[in-house]
Amino acid sequence: MQDITATRRALLVSGLATFVLLGVAQAIIGPALPVYQQMFGLTTGGAGWLVSGFWIGCFLGVIGIYLGAGRIGPRPGLAGSAAGALIMGLSPWWPAVILGGVVFGAGYGSLSAVFNPRILSAYGARGPSMMGLLNAIFSLGAIAAPLVFLALGGSPRDTLLVTALFAALIWLGSGGVSRGGAGANQAQTGFRLHWPILAFGVLAIGVEASLVSLGPTALIRAGLEETQAARLFSLFYVAYLLARTSLIFVASRIPAFTIFSGAVAVTLACALGAIFISPVWFFPPLGISASLFFQGFFVTGIRKMGTDARVPSVIIASGLLGAIVLPLICARLMDGLGDRGFFWLILAASVAMLAAAVPMHRQMVR
């Protein structure tokens, strides 16, 4: 029993530190993107390739975990995160920055695919709540990233070098998380794809990725200054943190797909508010819905597709497909849709999801 407790503790401590890093990784690209546009003379669509490169890397990292089927620990992902941040921070050439984003993303995707299923499995009935804790801690890094970015004079280089150092320190402290320790699963019993939940994941995680990567750019296009956009982005992650923290207490009591459907409804309402009232007031609450998408679709997907070791990677990969494609589509289209075009695109995606989720709700919570 003591051995089990010790391995769980090592897994949780490493996971918490890693998810602070993942929060920084996801949140730093948004504030950095307008700076890169100015540095390299890019259009919004051209800068959007960094967002897609990051998520393509995430997809590749998840594929690696799928192929490893439970045999890979966190250290390769931490090494990839450190290397990618270094490449992004030190490269004077835009294609090399995108390459760094791919490597950075590969570390992110690998770490998400390692820790989420292991925490869910290691804590049994408390798994959804502990996964909620893990993802709440993610928000601390995401809140800190824009503030650190501002404190370092709006320099992507300096912020990314600090991020690389942080990843290296976590790598040093994660030696106690073995590949076959608490929550590890190498069973390959077979599984059947559940297409509806995978489709929801494509759209929902695509919306989340669009909000966190293009949100600051959308706010600046709506007439806000860069510093105000960065502060609103931090408030977005404060809302994200509060919603994720609530999952610690309710995730084991409320069906995961109910949480997902509620998040879609919040997205729709906030997109309408941003379009017709003010993005200043309605962009930060979008952090509530963005924070709930992953938990809702991931836990539902596990329930529907089974305990095969490869299932978590398939579920995460479906979301990453949306994260690769939807921000690129938004970046291409938002310039032609007016100063609030981004929020029209978010509204369209949320209407489509809610129209499908409501009639399917009873089937999805069984």
Automatic annotation (TrEMBL):
Coiled coil: none annotated. Its main location: membrane. Keywords: Membrane, Transmembrane, Transmembrane helix, Transport. It comes from the Bacteria. It is a multi-pass membrane protein. Gene3D superfamilies: MFS general substrate transporter like domains (1.20.1250.20). InterPro entries: MFS_trans_sf, MFS_Transporter. One of its GO terms (cellular component) is endomembrane system. The chain crosses the membrane at residues 46-69, 76-94, 100-120, 132-153, 159-177, 197-220, 232-250, 257-277, 283-302, 314-335, 341-360. It is found in: Endomembrane system. PANTHER family: BYPASS OF STOP CODON PROTEIN 6. Belongs to the major facilitator superfamily. This is MFS transporter. The lineage of its organism: Bacteria, Pseudomonadati, Pseudomonadota, Alphaproteobacteria, Rhodobacterales.
